[in-house]
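// run 5 | inverse folding | seed 20
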């Protein structure tokens, strides 16, 4: 019992010491609020906003020079969970992409595209593929495609080259 009383006394003494240190530090290091308010002047600062490249701003020839078909095949392996790339391959969650380059956007009759995608119009050329692959949801607002996009230019260029190779009639590179 004597031992238990010593432990309880030690714990209580520790709390008392901590309490005293805490209160004394508040008194020693007291910071008072300033009695006068300071006026802060605002200055107009012009901000430069970096514009996102649009289709016409991209040097597609230089972009495609960064990529290779072999690298595109590796990058496209992620896409295979939703898209077929083989000739005669069926649609999956996403449409089949055999011979997609040079075709109208939303060209497959046997695939149900989102309303935004079906109404978008245009053609899958090198420039539109590049813009779309950066971030699909930003390029076609309302698309069901949940893929985040390809930020690296080399990856986009390689996927475009790979898509262009998977057809009977690849488009001539610029």
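// decoded
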């Amino acid at each position: 019992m004597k031992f238990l009383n010593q432990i309880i006394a030690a714990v209580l003494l520790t709390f008392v010491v901590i309490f005293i240190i805490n209160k004394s530090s508040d008194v020693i290091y007291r910071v008072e609020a300033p009695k006068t308010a300071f006026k802060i002047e605002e200055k107009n600062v012009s901000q430069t906003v970096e514009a996102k490249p649009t289709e016409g701003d991209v040097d597609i020839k230089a972009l495609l020079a960064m990529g290779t078909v072999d690298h595109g095949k590796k990058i496209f392996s992620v896409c295979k969970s939703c898209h077929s790339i083989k000739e005669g391959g069926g649609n999956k969650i996403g449409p089949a992409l055999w011979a997609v380059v040079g075709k109208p956007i939303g060209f497959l009759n046997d695939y149900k595209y989102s309303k935004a995608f079906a109404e978008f119009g245009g053609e899958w050329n090198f420039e539109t593929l590049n813009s779309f692959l950066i971030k699909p949801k930003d390029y076609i607002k309302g698309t069901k495609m949940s893929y985040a996009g390809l930020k690296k230019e080399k990856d986009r260029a390689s996927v475009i080259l790979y898509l262009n190779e998977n057809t009977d009639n690849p488009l001539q590179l610029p």
